[in-house]
Amino acid sequence: MTQEFNHGTAHATLFPDAPDWEGAPTMAVGKFSCGSVKDGAAVLAEATAAAREAGARRLLGPMDGTTWNSYRLVTETDGTPPFLMEPTSGPSDLAAFEAAGFAPIARYFSARVTLAGMDNPPPVDPEIRVETWDGTDPEAHFSQVYDLSLSAFSGNAFYTPISREAFLGMYLPFVPVIRREFVLFAYNSEGALVGFLFGIPNYGAGPAPDTVILKTYASLQHGAGQALASVFHSAAQEAGFATAIHALIHETNVSAQRSAQLGGRMFRRYALMGKVLDDNPA
């Protein structure tokens, strides 16, 4: 059961069911906001004390329970307005977490790439076939994606599975604004689904954006990710978009190298913060 904490201008929620960190009992603090570093650090101290008392030995934040929900805070930005579905932070959030004894334990970034004239390499495996969603039966198609994601994401740090119903509840609301050419499926020579890519125009900038977001992609076979990305960038160029955002990439992921090879320019950095708890208040 979650617990709510308020201190002055700050608010936080403690989630008792969180991904394990280093195999230790772990909780997460999320739904965080603060108007000052002092208030933010104080509310995090209250949540930390409650987590320690409940038996946690690790605390993650900001994270609304799991990585399927909002998590990470902004650590560096060029001032570009937030894009659709991007985690956001208040001006005092990072300093508040640091003042409360948290430190970065995973780092991420978003980059933008100019599509005109981009050197978009062809797929490395000609036997991988990429198909565009035909717009029919979204529940069935995203149910396939759910099955693939259980395998593709299982090795990711802090990953925890969610139910099929919860997964569909996250994606199906976007169906009315999805453009089919940015929902891609990769199949191997035997016809098995080995990859998925979900992109969406940056409607956070208005109803007719010139930027498209490569939001999520996953693959189970070498070469599937590159094939999906190649088709995505070509489709974005053909549709008249000027820029693509490579969103929320873990800095050690192979996607980081691919983004750089395509001319991606980093414009935002993020971190998931963590704190080791001992038996005595810090």
Structure description:
The protein has 282 residues and is of the alpha+beta class. It folds into two domains: 3-107 and 270-276, Aminopeptidase (3-Layer(aba) Sandwich), CATH 3.40.630; 129-241, Aminopeptidase, CATH 3.40.630.30. The chain contains six helices and twelve strands. The chain has helices at residues 37-53, 93-99, 138-152, 164-171, 224-238, 254-261; strands at 3-7, 10-15, 26-33, 58-61, 73-77, 103-114, 129-132, 183-187, 193-201, 211-219, 243-250, 265-276. Strands 1, 2, 3, 4, 5, 6, 7, 8, 9, 10, 11 and 12 form a twelve-stranded mixed beta sheet that branches. Strand 8 and strand 9 (193-201) form a beta hairpin. It starts with a strand and ends in a 6-residue tail after the last strand. The model has no long low-confidence stretch (mean pLDDT 93).
Biggest β-sheet strands, sense, barrel: 12 strands, mixed
Computed Rg: 20 Å
| Secondary structure: number of strands | 12
CATH topology type of the largest domain: Aminopeptidase
**What is the total number of structural domains?**
2
What string gives the helices and strands in order?
Answer: EEEHEEHEEHHEEEHEHE
Low-confidence stretches: none
CATH architect. name of the largest domain: 3-Layer(aba) Sandwich
Please give the share of residues in helix.
Answer: 10-25%
Q: What is the CATH class designation of the largest domain?
A: Alpha Beta
What general outline do the C-alpha atoms trace?
A: globular
**Quick check: average pLDDT?**
93
Number of helices: 6
Distance between the termini: 24 Å
